[in-house]
Structure formats: C-alpha cells, structure tokens
C-alpha cells in the first residue's frame, strides 16, 4: 500500500489534534509530521486538517478518513496483540464484576490446570471496546446493544428468582408484609421484571438499594432482605446453604455471552470458550416453586 507511513502519521495526528503531540508520540520532528500530512493530502487531493487556535482540527474529509484509519490500525494492533498472547499463552478478558467475583474467579485455577492458559481479568459491565482496550474477549450479560462489529457467542441462559438467607426466610415467610426487597443501581428493575414474568408480587413497601449487584446479593446472604438472584451468580451460595430459593427460578430473557472480534474462535480463545460453555452447563437451576407470595 502506498504511503502507509503517511496514513499512520495521519492516524496518530488525528487522535492527538496536534502536530506537536503527534511528533512526540512518533518520536519525529514537527516538520516531519507536517511533511507526511502534506504528502497524504496531495496523494488524496483533499485537505485533511485546518488550524484552530493552537491545535489542528479535522476537515469533513479528514473525519471520514479517520473512521477508516481507526478501523484499520486498531484491527492491526489487535491482531499483533493476539499473536503475542498466543505465543505467550495468555488471554486478556473483561468480565462483569459480579460474575467475576461470584463465579469465575473460584474456577479459574481449574482452567489453568487444564490448559496452561493464563487468563488476565479486568472487570467492567455493559458496552466494551475490545481493540482499544487491548482485550481478547469480554463476558457480558446481553442487556445492552452489541455493536455489529463484535461477534456474540452464547454461553448460557440466565435464570432469575428471589433468594434469601435461610434465617431471613424463616423470619418472613409467615408475614410477607415485613419483607425487605433489595435493589441495585446496576439492575434496578430486577424485582419488577421477575414479578412481570412470574405473575407474582410481594405486597411490601420496604426496600434497600445498593450501588452494585454484587452488594445486593451479599446483603441477601447477610440476611438484610431478599434479592433477585441470577444463575450462575448464586449457585455456590445455594450449594453451600448460604442462600435458599423457595420460589425456584424462571428464564429472565437474557443470556451470558462471550464477545469477540472474530466469528470463529481459535486456539486460546476457543479453549476458553469451550471451558466456559462446559462449566456453565453444569449450573442448571431447580425450577420447582414453593409458597406463592401475595
């Protein structure tokens, strides 16, 4: 490709909005940046920048070109990082915080023992920029718009239902009006969604709210009220007896998914996906229901 260096200089300059900052990042002179931009403008017969104050702003044509150079160089950078990860046998993975702490972390050692692949975790929820963040994969609940450039690999359907500590359940099951409903800012409609899908409702005005879903579930474990538990996030608590689910679970309409750059997973990514899918398949909820709330 002709003038590849000039395209890269343009890419860095467009991100910096400054010839001087681009020169520092590229370890070249201000004049060298200006020369490469002028070379590219002559090649394309388009003006790409105009001066505004001390900075440089993109023209309409420059904005259009930037969209394509972003895709090209971010994709190239992602490919190089993937090759590096493959040769060093590790993956950079983003995962939702509650799923990380309550399900994934306790099981990662078994994946490493099985494959020898080191999974380097970062936690975040919702939309993710894989290439810009240097990530291989992201594990998410599909409750947001997933851009078409990402491929979605279904892992497991989410099931939801009310959960309580055994002690708290014994206290309130004779008087539903005393129940405290636990909410979280990250899943504010969890109770209303469950009520709508199940056809049941608790007649109570008592509630507590927490910033994160993880805190909400931990509050249920600690006997502060009842929370809507999400499989597989509470499977270990149910197994150990820290929580009970007297009403069983119903499909929430959402799934946990693995997001990737490519449709076909290979090598380390494929190994991780297969392990996630197999391990999550063992986390199937019991759907039998007990007493009905009123």
Characterise the protein shown here.
One of its GO terms (biological process) is DNA-templated transcription. By secondary structure, this protein is of the alpha/beta class. It folds into three domains: 4-77, Arc Repressor Mutant, subunit A; 84-155 and 254-281, Periplasmic binding protein-like II (D-Maltodextrin-Binding Protein, domain 2, 3-Layer(aba) Sandwich), CATH 3.40.190.10; 158-252, D-Maltodextrin-Binding Protein, domain 2, CATH 3.40.190. 46% of the residues lie in helices and 21% in strands. The strands form three sheets. It has a six-stranded mixed sheet with strand order 4-3-5-10-6-9, with helices on both faces. Strands 1-2 form a two-stranded antiparallel ribbon. Helix 1 (4-16) packs across helix 2, helix 1 (4-16) crosses helix 3 (30-44) and helix 1 packs across helix 4 (60-88). The N and C termini lie far apart (70 Å).
Summarize the structure.
One of its GO terms (molecular function) is sequence-specific DNA binding. This is Transcriptional activator of tryptophan biosynthesis TrpI. The chain is of the alpha/beta class and 294 residues long.
């Amino acid at each position: 490709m002709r003038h590849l260096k000039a395209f890269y200089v343009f890419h860095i300059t467009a991100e910096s909005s400054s010839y001087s900052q681009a020169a520092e990042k590229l370890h070249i002179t201000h004049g060298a940046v200006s020369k490469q931009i002028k070379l590219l403008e002559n090649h394309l017969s388009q003006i790409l920048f105009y001066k505004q104050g001390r900075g440089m702003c993109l023209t309409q044509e420059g904005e259009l070109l930037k969209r394509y150079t972003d895709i090209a160089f971010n994709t190239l950078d992602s490919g190089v990082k993937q090759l590096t990860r493959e040769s060093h046998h590790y993956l950079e993975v983003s995962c939702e915080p509650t799923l990380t702490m309550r399900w994934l972390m306790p099981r990662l050692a078994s994946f490493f023992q099985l494959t020898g692949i080191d999974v380097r975790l970062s936690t975040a929820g919702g939309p993710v920029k894989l290439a810009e963040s240097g990530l291989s994969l992201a594990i998410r609940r599909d409750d947001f718009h997933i851009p078409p450039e990402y491929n979605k690999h279904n892992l497991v359907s989410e099931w939801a239902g009310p959960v309580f500590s055994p002690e708290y359940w014994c206290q309130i099951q004779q008087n539903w009006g005393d129940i405290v409903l636990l909410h979280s800012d990250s899943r504010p409609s969890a109770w209303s969604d469950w009520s709508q899908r199940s056809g049941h409702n608790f007649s109570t005005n008592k509630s507590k709210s927490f910033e994160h879903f993880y805190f909400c579930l931990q509050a249920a474990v600690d006997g502060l009220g009842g929370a809507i538990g999400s499989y597989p996030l509470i499977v270990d608590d149910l197994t150990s007896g820290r929580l009970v689910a007297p009403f069983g679970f119903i499909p929430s309409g959402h799934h946990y998914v693995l997001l990737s750059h490519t449709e076909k997973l290979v090598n380390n990514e494929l190994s991780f996906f297969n392990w996630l899918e197999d391990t999550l398949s063992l986390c199937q909820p019991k759907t039998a229901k007990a007493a009905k709330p009123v």
